[in-house]
Design brief:
116 residues, mainly alpha, Rossmann fold, two-stranded parallel sheet, two-stranded parallel ribbon, 47% helix, magnesium, TA_system_RNase, PIN_Sll0205, Twitching motility protein PilT
Length: 116
């Protein structure tokens, strides 16, 4: 979500962008920053070299990963195998947050989602 917001992705609906611009409790996980940095390092993502730093500095609140998040992520059903997405799901479950996503597999978990 933050990646689409930062890059002004035209497929991000205006109402979602406005909500992200004005909602005070939007969080970004270090898992997102790590995934972006990893994808850049292996050539799967080439948008600005400082993209991980831009995400970090986006103004969204940081939701650090803790032991409870790790335990919940490890115990999730194997509907989705992406470890980054599994961590985001676990964080959303533990913290009772809504996960903004385009991934059709994520709503199969017991987590509130906002589809974009």
């Amino acid at each position: 979500m933050v990646l689409w917001w930062l890059t002004d992705d035209p497929t991000l609906a205006t109402e979602i962008k406005d909500r992200l611009d004005h909602e005070p409790d939007v969080y970004v996980s270090p898992a997102t920053i790590w995934e972006v940095a990893l994808k850049q390092s292996i050539g799967k993502l080439d948008k600005p070299a400082d993209l991980p730093e831009r995400i970090r500095d986006s103004g969204f609140r940081h939701l650090n990963i803790n032991a409870e998040h790790a335990l919940v992520a490890e115990r999730l059903p194997l509907i989705h195998r992406d470890p980054f997405d599994r961590m985001l799901i676990a964080q959303a479950q533990v913290e009772r947050l809504t996960l903004v996503t385009r991934d059709a597999e994520i709503p199969k978990y017991d987590v509130e989602t906002l589809a974009v």
